[in-house]
Amino acid sequence: MKRKVVYAILALLCSLGLWMYVVTVENPAFEGTFYNIPVVFENEEILMERGLMITSDKIPTVTLKLSGNRTDVNKLDESNITILADLSKIYSSGEQKVNYTIMYPGDVPTNSIEIINQTPQQIQLTFAEWKYKEVDVEVAYSGSVPEQFIAFKENATLDFPKIAVTGPAAIIDRIDKARIQVNLDDRTETISEAFAYTFCDKDGNPVESNQIKANTDEIRYTLKIQRWKDIPVKVNIIDGGGIQGEDCQIIMDTSTIRVSGSEQVLEKLDELVIGEIRLGELTSDFHEIYNIEVPEGVTNLSEKHKVTVTIKLPDLELREFTVTNIQPVNVPDGLTASIINAEKVIRVRGPKEMLDAMTAEQLRIKVDFTGAEAGAASYRALVVIPPEYAEYVGVVGTYDVNANLTGK
After folding, report:
1. What confidence tens digit (pLDDT) does each residue in 35-65 have?
2. How far is CA 93 from CA 106, 186, 214, 259, in A?
3. Per residue, what are the HEC states of the chain?
4. Which among 321, 245, 323, 322 is positioned nearest to 282, based on CA atoms?
5. pLDDT range class, residue 75, cuts 50, 70, 90
6. Rounded CA gap, 292 and 275, in Å?
7. Rounded Cα distance, 375 and 406, in Å
8. pLDDT tens per residue, range 231-275
9. What angle do CA 354, 355, 356 make, to 5 degrees?
């Protein structure tokens, strides 16, 4: 019994040795099938130079049944077999059959492999005329920003105002524009986002094809959105010359303007002062045009950029008085003030009966020398009106007095 077991083991070893010899030494013919090997196109740039392109949607594949010695066939798989289709012999559009070449890895001799079967024998491809075109980008809005906000659509920007497209001429000719959709509902801050787009024909219908190639997949769109506010426009009226602002007829052709800006800026902006008018310097009705200048960070949304201001003065009389009572005050220690002007003609405005009652002797002029230094100079004169008239009359204009300061 033991002898039989020994013989059986010896027989198995002999069989295994014979098999190893046949496989490794004799290396008999061996077949293998390789499925769906993708086709690689050669000289595609030459095809485009001829104004042509492949329009087939899918990359074609080839299935091969090959024969050769076991060692070489075992080195092959779908990833290292190359199917190469040469497009340099294509000169016209339409469906055409293209021959292909089979290439093996460098360590597998081409003459050691036999092709038993190849499916298909030729590659069936569709070719079309190729075209390049640039199309405008159109922004289609939906919804609207909330009340008291404004979207500056006319100043919006696109990083690609035009898109370059290539593809079959029949499809490219249908494309009229590229459209992005922007929804403004609940938008209260500036938009700066990347949007996908859709190609459309001249009627706005989508043009879709995976054969279209473009120079970008998305478009960055920037749209400024700000809050707006109506603010009063005014001029500061400084009483003087016997007139108070409430006694004048003040006419402005624009009293408010609409502006936009950030929440922080608008929160602090309650009015816009465009100028200052001192009634004490007016001798007749006033008419002036002021430019509207808004603060930095604020946009004037109104059509008005100038304001015409008219002031009609009350019916008062203007009279001149020659004042000789000129008094130096606040003369620095160690200096003496000498008034060069012995008298000064001033104008006073007020009701006729008040001006008739007032005399030049009742008026006096103060010249303030605070901080003055030795030498001759011109100093501002302050005209003092008696208290009993001060409520009804006022000095018109400003006056200077020449004086000389010398050491004692």
Report:
1. 999 999 999 999 989 999 998 778 999 999 9
2. 36, 52, 22, 61
3. CHHHHHHHHHHHHHHHHHHHHHHHHHCCEEEEEEEEEEEEEECHHHHHHCCEEECCCCCCEEEEEEEEEHHHHHCCCCCCCEEEEECCCCCCCEEEEECEEEECCCCCCHHHCEEEEEECCCEEEEEEEEEEEEEEEEEEEECCCCCCEEECHHHCEECCCEEEEEEEHHHHCCCCEEEEEEECCCCCCCEEEEECCEEECCCCCECCCCCCEECCCCEEEEECEEEEEEEEEEEEEECECCECHHHCEEEECCCEEEEEECHHHHHHCCCEEEEEEEHHHCCCCEEEEEECCCCCCCEECCCCCEEEEEEECCCCEEEEEEECCEEEECCCCCEEEEECCCCEEEEEEECHHHHHHCCHHHCEEEEECCCCCCEEEEEEEEEECCHHHHCCCEEECCEEEEEEEEEC
4. 245
5. very high
6. 9
7. 6
8. 999 999 999 999 999 999 999 999 999 999 998 999 999 999 999
9. 90
Structure tokens at 280: 């004490």
As given in the structure block, the two tokens for residue 139 are: 């922004």
* Distance between CA atoms of residues 368 and 383, nearest Å: 11
> Is the pLDDT score of 15 beyond 70?
no
Token pair listed for 95 = 């469906």
